[in-house]
Amino acid sequence: MSITKVDELLTLPGWETRKKIIDSLQEGPKTAYELSKELNINYSTARYHLELLQKFGLVNIRKGRKYYYELTKNAKLLLRDY
Question: Where are the domains of the chain?
């Protein structure tokens, strides 16, 4: 992922919500449901932002009985200054 894509992501509406999701995922993998409850946002909203973060290569999905979202190594490197 290029810095240009990160800049694009930062300018899209909803960055504050995505930033909260990223901050929460720094603690470890979580489901969309867990994130929605923790951040007091609608489940559909959490899923939308997680899919966008995945599209930009900042979040991976780990599949098991549940889908867990986790930050990629690139996300940790690229977003440490934001």
Answer: 3-78
Amino acid at 3: I
Closest CA relative to residue 39, chosen from 22, 20, 13: 20
Encode pLDDT of 39-70 as tens digits: 999 999 999 999 999 988 899 999 989 999 99
Q: In which element (H, E) is residue 76 found?
A: helix 73-78
CA 53 to chain centre: 5
Report residue 37 as tokens: 């409850």
Q: How far is CA 58 from CA 49, 68, 72, 78, in A?
A: 11, 14, 5, 9
Give the DSSP letter of residue 62.
Answer: E
Q: Which CATH architecture has domain 3-78?
A: Orthogonal Bundle (1.10)
Instruction: Write down the pTM of the prediction.
Output: 0.82
